[in-house]
Design brief:
two-stranded parallel sheet; Endonuclease, Chain A; 15-stranded mixed sheet; 19 strands; alpha/beta; 3 domains
Length: 480
């Protein structure tokens, strides 16, 4: 028998099958073309790459968002949330009325629009961690903590000891850590916490056999909920690198937010969903998990946008597209990884060409040369449309923020890239409040003092040799 001929026929049939799978699975034309190129031009290897990081598992949802199927209390909470959201939408300040379509978009995704929140902007780890530690020490009933990166270093151990102490005091402490991002704490670190009474589980644990698809869907959220009344969300993980105390170390610029009030409800909901997926138990819905003491200082209106492989739609991407489309005067965007894809790219160009002043702050050098090159390939189009692009030079800017018209502040975990829009579990806070928007706007303008603005004409006239690597990397951008 001609085994070579049989092998060749089998390989061709397998390639055809995988190509049909790509066409069937992926809705984006650009991404489909990119994976077809990989499968065809990289024999064998291309197929492995596709099934490892490209196959669309969204339709086979990783888990259900239904916490309890027939829980009357949960039904009552949802009904109250809808009623309160409609009231806030009708009687809210100008900030929310100007973004009514955005609020309704998220409300359709079951994210409540909540008023009477006290919100505090936290810049870098040196502002976040003191607030977080103080709030953790004050916990009376429960602490829910969820991080992509939680490291076995000084700040990580400091927080670990607080969690152990609170568990000893009778506070219920539940801890979710991403099994990939927090791999340094998998063994002794977590074991010590569990032995002391902290309940801890990895998110989507990585086993060697399942390595290919599980590393592709990660919990990129950073959520803390304390006593159902205080929440933290943003870009700052638990790691010493976010605390800028040593001038010899790389400066990390990041943004987080502390919320006190009903805006914490949806963060709590997300945590419980993730907990019921990770843990070998189901956390029941109780009044203590969805009740708070009204804060007289609270005036801000808050809504939470969240999405992941479990979502029916890419809610975070849709919310950013709506924000860009609704902008009238100014958009200030900070993203460490800017690979926007066609939808967001077109939205930015349309807004800029319609007269909206758009400024984009990105790192001068990313922590990934491939991602950095792919991101730079998009600058030409947005520069031509009138977007101002600034390269941060003081250190590494890791913040994921947006300010729209000085009224809406977006602070969260999602980068402006395919991975955050489609693959990772992400969460953004949408704060309809002029005071917070002004603070974030001031922080942005302070940051661009340490950045270099790209000259559109010089960027357009760069040599072909400089542009070629970026254009090649752009072909792979849907895969990054």
């Amino acid at each position: 028998m001609n085994w070579y001929l049989l092998g060749s026929i089998a390989y061709v049939l397998l390639t055809v099958f995988v190509c049909f799978r790509v066409l069937y699975d992926i809705r984006s034309t650009t991404k489909t073309f990119a994976y077809l190129l990989v499968v065809i031009l990289l024999p064998g290897v291309g197929m492995v790459i596709y099934f490892a990081v490209g196959a669309n598992y969204r339709k086979n949802k990783l888990y259900s968002k239904k916490i309890v199927n027939d829980n009357k209390l949960l039904a009552d909470i949802r009904k109250r949330i809808v009623n309160e959201s409609e009231k806030t939408l009708d009687t809210g300040e100008q900030e929310v009325k100007s973004h009514k379509k955005l609020a309704r978009l998220l409300l359709n995704d079951n994210s409540p629009l909540t008023g009477d929140n006290e919100v505090k902007l936290l810049l870098n780890g040196e502002q976040k961690f003191p607030e977080l530690i103080e709030a953790l020490k004050a916990a009376q009933h429960h602490i829910h903590i969820e991080y992509y990166i939680f490291e076995d270093d000084n700040i990580g151990n400091q927080i670990k000891e607080i969690l152990i102490q609170k568990a000893a005091e009778g506070v219920k402490v539940r801890f979710i850590y991403d099994d990939f991002g927090s791999r340094s704490i998998r063994k002794q670190f977590v074991r010590k916490m569990v032995e002391a009474g902290v309940e801890a589980y990895p998110f989507y644990k990585i086993w060697f056999i399942a390595l290919s698809n599980r590393t592709n869907y990660r919990d990129h959220r950073k959520i803390v909920v304390i006593d159902a009344s205080t929440g933290f969300v943003g870009g700052i993980n638990v790691s010493d690198r976010y605390i800028n105390g040593d001038p010899k170390q790389l400066y990390w610029r990041d943004t987080h937010v502390m919320i006190k009030g009903p805006g914490v409800y949806y963060l709590q909901y997300l945590f419980i969903c993730d907990w019921n997926f990770c843990a070998d138990q189901r956390l029941p819905i109780t009044k203590e998990l969805f009740s708070y003491t009204k804060n007289k200082k609270g005036k801000a209106i808050v809504q939470i946008a969240a999405s992941g492989p479990d979502s029916d739609t890419p809610t975070i991407m849709f919310s950013l597209l709506e924000t860009i489309a609704m902008a009238q005067d100014e958009l200030l965007i900070t993203s460490p990884y800017f690979i926007p894809g066609d939808s967001v790219l077109d939205a930015l160009c349309i807004a800029a060409m319609s007269g909206v002043k758009i400024k984009l702050l990105v790192p001068h050098h990313s922590d990934s040369a491939l991602v950095n090159a792919a991101a730079r390939s998009y600058y030409r189009e947005i520069l031509s449309a009138g977007v101002e692009v600034y390269l941060y030079q003081k250190g590494f800017v890791h913040a994921k923020t947006m300010v729209a018209d000085g009224q809406l502040a977006i602070i969260g975990t999602a980068n402006m890239d395919h991975r955050s829009f489609e693959l990772n579990f992400e969460v953004n806070s949408m704060i309809y409040d002029k005071a917070i928007a002004k603070q974030l706007r001031d922080a942005f303008y302070n940051d661009i003092e340490d950045a270099m603005q790209i000259n559109a004409e010089r960027w357009e006239n760069r040599t072909i040799l400089k542009q070629l690597p970026e254009k090649l990397c752009r072909l792979l951008s849907p895969l990054l």
